[in-house]
Amino acid sequence: MDLNSQQKKTVIASFLGWTLDAFDFFLLTFLLTDIAAEFHTEVPAVTKAIFLTLATRFIGAFLFGMLADKYGRKPILMLNIVSYSVIGALAAFSPNLGIFLALRALFGIAMGGEWGLGSSLAMESIPPSARGMVSGILQCGYPAGYLLAAVVYGLLYGQKVGEFTFGWRAMFLLSFVPALIVLFIRSHVPESPAFVEARQHVKPGLLETLQKHWGIALYAVVLMMFFNFFSHGTQDLYPTFLKKQHGFDPHTVSWITIVANLGAIAGGLGFGALSERIGRVNAITLACLIALPALPLWAYSTTPFMLAVGAFVMQVAVQGAWGVIPVHLNELSPGAVRATLPGFIYQAGNLAASYGGPYQAGIAEAPGSSYGYALALFAGVVAVCIIIVIRFSPEKRGQVMTVLDREVSAIPGKV
Predict the structure, then answer these.
(1) Would you tell me the Gene Ontology cellular component terms (predicted)?
(2) Can you give the pTM of this predicted structure?
(3) Superfamily of domain 205-394, CATH level 4
(4) Alpha helices, DSSP H only, in 236-355?
């Protein structure tokens, strides 16, 4: 992967922005039972925070994306990171469940902007031949954030420093940390060359572009709905599954989750790079096929070791498929709205899948059911759905990216 110094810094900044965004999000998944206990409610009621975060992300993708298409990727990315850091930390001061849910909804708006901004900045700044690997690197920010949350939870949660105890409120205060990335971006990351080139030209707006490309946009939203069911359906309730169904302590939950996210990082990097050789569609298909035989080991094992093995393989599959998504959506998107459309499509799919967490929790806690059953049901059905839907996707591997829609295919015969 031949990148110059500025391109490497751009990729690092985009990766870190998504990593710490995911860190803020996944902290909640480790703390559901504790928040429920403090607010005297049940876990399904607290999982509405996950629903609200996912449901409002499309608003942030639209708002921050529109600003970035007008004012530039770099300054709006900095604004976005500061926003999700501050709002994430404010959850620590919630006096009741209602305020907590409202703050997580606002966090979702801020979180929703980062993916589209970071991916468009990176993809427009690197050569086409590096996009598959960089796509995998960027998407690995998500499991890296989950892994970081697992490490922090395992090391800090419940620990005492004098009279102070690291409870769930203290964990949310760590959301201030991502704001430090802004200093790095401001000093070291250049603006997207494609955006700079197009600054003096009139570009079509989002609505005009959607009217022209409504078919691919609608298809991509459906695809991303299934993708978000795939990731959140295998991740968000897994710590709760380990605690409630198996009774594991925080240390055990932490290390199993760490192993799972090591698998996710391996999958994202591996399948992102593989997509440069076999194509985006084929790489996603192969990754989803791996998830199916992993289901029994992942959801129905009884020992920590075997659950960790199953979680590793499952997340290789899940994030392997996801590792192709940043480059695939950016290649499918018209250049004039590339900061808006991929992120908006991604988060609109999130909106469509946003009630998955509460729905899974409801299935899991129904009489005669279990979290293992709810997790396996979601993962199996959705993997098959993605395999079917992705086969209808256009393949635009290697397409040259500009902001003025002068794109031409870099690979003969690709459409």
Answers:
(1) plasma membrane
(2) 0.75
(3) MFS general substrate transporter like domains (1.20.1250.20)
(4) 238-240, 250-278, 280-300, 304-322, 325-332, 341-353
